[in-house]
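SAMPLE LOG
Freezer: B-3
Tube label: C17
Construct: single chain, 70 aa
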Amino acid sequence: MSNYNYTCFEIKLAGFPIKLEQSRKKGKLFTVTYGAQINRDLSYSEGCEKLGQVIFHALSLDSKVDNSGD
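STRUCTURE (predicted):
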């Protein structure tokens, strides 16, 4: 286990890894990783929003949800 980040959640959807980490330092901020995209230093609410967005995006790529109404 890293001294810097704790992996809270990890899954692979639509062939892409999705990971939520919380910093053990830096005021307990979050990092959301989706494939090569890395969003760092997120607050709790920003982490919630970003994690939801990437999960929905991956589900739409897998045709599990229909995003045509957006």
